[in-house]
């Protein structure tokens, strides 16, 4: 598996990252450990998790995925040094009252305490990439489209967030820092303040990127290119809709039953489950088949080969899915197929924004 460097951090990561949000909910611990072993054998050295996982988020499963990873490290001496480990501190409450008592803020002390809790669950002495899961300030995200100044509240400043992250870096708890679900303003401001005050410079931003959501290309890609910040593309298969499993009758088919969009009521309200998003997925999936590709292979190849993407985060529930996703690495899409993809995007835009 090809490696790339995240921003200016020096972290060398595989171009495909194994996301772990399914571990502890759809995937039990023994299955998770087997998937981690196989991913490592296949050349994946980059693992991403978060304190709020498993997903869908519940108080009972908060931190469960990190604990599963920690047990994997403990059972396999030496493995921790072979992987680049990323995790995330949750942003302000989005109705999750078990996270910092539903605080509308994320203070420096919160960041430090959350990191120490993650280290304990992960059974490690350092986190390679520590990310803020979503912005502390109000921004449109997770399906939101419009910024609303009326929802802006006094919260911890970006400078103070960086100060807390800097403390963790100085203490050797964290090697590099990153963001998730960020905007062009946020990326530019984090970099500006880090350089101005000698604080840690963000290495990466983990944002959605797929055939159904290419909003990254609407300006954020230029910001990150010019500031040397790497994109970690999450949901490249749009929560499974770009695999074809929902093509026949939406979320109601037996083939779809195991998918998150069909299995969990909370997921049916997600942007990926919008009727227009599922309709767009069917268009892309048909296009893939017309060109002799599986929908999964075309969707992943699109992300794997884009200059904007440093590493693509895949989520799986079994070894077959993992192999299918990894086997898509190295697939190239013809100029004619890419032109057809762009024609569909011009018509349908980004329905899972």
UniProtKB/TrEMBL annotation:
Ranges for domain NADP-dependent oxidoreductase: 16-344
SUPFAM superfamilies linked to this entry: NAD(P)-linked oxidoreductase
GO MF terms held by the record: oxidoreductase activity
Superkingdom of the source species: Bacteria
Protein name: Aldo/keto reductase
This protein's UniProt keywords: Oxidoreductase
A Pfam family matched in the record: Aldo_ket_red
Keyword Thylakoid among UniProt keywords: no
